[in-house]
């Protein structure tokens, strides 16, 4: 049998049964290491056997991220149509570095870029780089910011680097996503040198504090805000931040890995008011657009700034026409997969209304989960559910944070062990919380009742055990 046929059958068998399986890997990492351990083969194996072996060994260690009740981290469910387009990207064997290497991939990417700007309603002249995700997107966009800010001060950062350059003051919120700090580190800004701006109880940047801190610094300024805080889903006050950026001649960048999709929904759009005044934005495809990993977009208003920071040229590479959208001038890589294809397919399949309906549904389901669980004594919804994120504290005020952490961990262990839903935890305002991210394109309304029942049952059981333990003590 043809090797593609084998892969196809294994993929279809997996995807068509995943919703009936427990929402957890059957084997853990150590068990999987043992399964895959082995010496480098001296001789070859027929292709079809290789793929069957990979699937036979690997399927038991897969995390069912495509399951309708996967609520872990913030991960999309890889919609079938975009997975299929991604297969073509691989099967066609295209290298999306440049037009001449693949006219199709370059053209599809260009159209998808335009569609993204349209659905997200960002400046149509902005450049869009197809990167691996928001981490790489933050890196690319912030590289553009660094170059542009220093150029205004007469410094050519692309040519001369940072040694001896004017200091760029970088402002991030105290609840910034870790990937922004990584990107700043790659760019030579250093995590420790950033100015951290105070936030409110939802993780929103306090504009007053930003204004005060900006006023205290002389020189080029880079302000990094966020749409969709990783725990609470909150949005920074963009309109006010844009005013402050304008007053300070600062570059305003928005880390909007999932939150920017709120802009596609008319009734959620106000959350993003003012965001269009920023200079750069980052958003993922592999989150709310349900594009398979890895897929993100670095969007920069000043296309020239992004191109200068990412440009690559050599005599063996085709010269770039000024009118060209040169794919490799917009991302850190030269050779890369044709990431525009799955994005094009997802947008083609859903259309503007399909994206809006999905995002709206997920936010409504998140509110339902929160409203249901808020009724349960001992469960506290710690965030205002403005988007798709719900964070839950388990235990009572008198228990103390350490005790509540033990209780929350016990509830999470229990629900995950039961395999009815998958959730993960994080620390928020000193509390270990259960994070529920409603972002699976596969979810149906009834999955919410199943999820809340599972959490209620686990909490009931953990409370009973905790009470009897206390009684014994
Ligand atoms: C706000 C925010 N920024 C950045 C990232 C990093 O995104 P990625 O994992 O796609 O690099 C995430 C991931 O969840 C995020 O939520």
UniProtKB/TrEMBL annotation:
**InterPro entries (alphabetical):** Aromatic_deC, PyrdxlP-dep_de-COase, PyrdxlP-dep_Trfase, PyrdxlP-dep_Trfase_major, PyrdxlP-dep_Trfase_small
- This protein is called Aspartate aminotransferase family protein
Q: Which residues form a coiled coil?
A: none
Species of provenance: Sulfitobacter sediminilitoris
Superkingdom classification of source: Bacteria
- The reply to whether Hydrolase figures as a keyword in the UniProt entry is no
According to the UniProt record, list the residues that bear N6-(pyridoxal phosphate)lysine.
287
Query: What are the UniProt keywords, alphabetically?
Result: Aminotransferase, Decarboxylase, Lyase, Pyridoxal phosphate, Transferase
Q: Which family does it belong to?
A: Belongs to the group II decarboxylase family.
GO MF: carboxy-lyase activity; pyridoxal phosphate binding; transaminase activity
Q: Which Pfam families did the record assign?
A: Pyridoxal_deC
Per the entry, which co-factors are needed?
Answer: pyridoxal 5'-phosphate
One biological process term from GO is:
carboxylic acid metabolic process
């Amino acid at each position: 049998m043809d090797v593609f046929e084998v892969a196809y059958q294994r993929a279809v068998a997996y995807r068509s049964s995943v919703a009936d399986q427990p929402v957890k890997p059957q084997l853990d990492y150590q068990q999987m290491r043992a399964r895959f351990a082995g010496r480098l083969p001296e001789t070859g194996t027929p292709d079809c056997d290789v793929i069957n072996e990979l699937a036979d060994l690997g399927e038991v260690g897969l995390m069912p991220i495509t399951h309708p009740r996967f609520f872990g981290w913030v991960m999309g469910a890889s919609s079938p149509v975009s997975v299929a387009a991604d297969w073509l990207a691989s099967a066609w064997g295209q290298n999306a570095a440049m037009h001449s290497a693949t006219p199709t991939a370059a053209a599809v990417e260009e159209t998808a870029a335009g569609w993204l700007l349209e659905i997200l309603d960002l400046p149509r002249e902005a450049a869009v780089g197809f990167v691996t995700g928001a981490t790489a997107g933050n890196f690319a966009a912030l590289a553009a910011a660094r170059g542009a800010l220093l150029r205004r001060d007469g410094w050519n950062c692309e040519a001369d680097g940072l040694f001896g350059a004017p200091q760029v003051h970088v402002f991030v919120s105290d609840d910034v996503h870790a990937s922004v700090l990584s990107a700043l580190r790659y760019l030579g800004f250093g995590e420790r040198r950033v100015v951290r701006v105070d936030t409110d109880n939802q993780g929103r940047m306090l504009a007053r504090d930003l204004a005060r801190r900006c006023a205290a610094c002389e020189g080029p300024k880079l302000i990094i805000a966020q749409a969709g805080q990783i725990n609470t889903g909150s949005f920074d006050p963009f309109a006010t931040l844009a005013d402050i950026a304008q007053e300070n001649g600062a570059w305003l960048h928005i880390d909007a890995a999932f939150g920017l999709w709120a802009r596609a929904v008319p009734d959620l759009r106000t959350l993003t008011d003012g965001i269009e005044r920023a200079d750069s934005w980052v958003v993922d495809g592999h989150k709310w657009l349900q594009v398979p990993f890895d897929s993100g977009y670095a969007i920069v208003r000043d296309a020239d700034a992004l191109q200068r920071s990412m440009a690559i040229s050599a005599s063996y590479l085709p010269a770039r026409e000024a009118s060209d959208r040169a794919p490799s001038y917009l991302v850190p890589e030269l050779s890369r997969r044709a990431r525009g294809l799955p994005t094009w397919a997802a947008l083609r399949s859903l259309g503007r209304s399909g994206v809006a309906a999905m995002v709206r549904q997920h936010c409504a389901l998140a509110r339902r989960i929160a409203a249901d669980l808020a009724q349960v004594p001992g469960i506290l919804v710690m965030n205002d559910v403005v988007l798709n994120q719900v964070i839950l504290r388990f235990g009572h005020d008198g228990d103390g944070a350490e005790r509540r952490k033990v209780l929350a961990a016990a509830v999470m262990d229990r629900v995950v062990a039961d395999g009815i839903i998958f959730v993960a935890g994080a620390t928020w305002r000193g509390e270990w919380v259960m994070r529920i991210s409603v972002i699976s394109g596969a979810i149906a309304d009834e999955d919410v009742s199943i999820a809340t029942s599972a959490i209620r049952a686990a909490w009931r059981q953990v409370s009973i055990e905790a009470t009897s333990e206390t009684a014994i003590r």
